[in-house]
Amino acid sequence: MKAPPELHLTPELIVHAYRQGLFPMADAVDNPETFWVDPQMRGVMPLEDFHVPRRLVRTMKRAPFDMRIDTDFRQTIEACRMASVDRPTSWINDDILSAYCKLHAMGYAHSVECWHGDHLAGGLYGVCIASAFFGESMFSRQTDASKIALTYLVARLKYAGFALLDCQFATDHLTRFGLKEIPRATYHAKLQTALAQNADFHLMPVNLSPVEVLHAVGHKS
Predict the structure, then answer these.
(1) Does residue 29 lie in a domain region?
(2) What DSSP string describes 48-90?
(3) What was the pLDDT predicted at 2?
(4) Most exposed: 31, 66, 118, 131, by fewest CB within 10 Å?
């Protein structure tokens, strides 16, 4: 469904759309038109059944990255829309980039970042409303960076009592962590439950050790 031209993509419109189960996309990074998506089958990460692969557990325990929250949201979303071998173009056009940076300034949008020295090695971003987190995109410039960012995100959401992690679409990458596809009506019911509850994205301390993070996601050593 294309967004009518009179409906400029504002942060307020995006928040309203999320509450209805919609999210915006563009056909390509250089395509100025935005459309709204409400998939028949929705990719949702069950927070209670999140699975961390064994190899990733070993990597995390070595603490290869300095994990940060919201220290460079713009660089994170810009990295998410850069072309790569697996993703020759992006759905994040200039209007979406601008609107989500405004959402970040308003306290709705957040980034989970993996830093290696002064280098942003990977991360993800999404939008938080009540006890729902809407994951938007992730990227890696170093091995496992986006996977570690996802694990830290899930730890943060579980720690704060979030009810929903919406991943929009199913991918092989996310399915390995336990992602499930659910029908649109089921998703909308879960969304309304999550919107009726409050949760604080910043409740979890940023300095938890990797072992504490793994414990928070439910991993048993």
Answers:
(1) no
(2) GG----HHHHHHHHT--SEEEESS-HHHHHHHHTS--SS-SS-
(3) 43
(4) 118
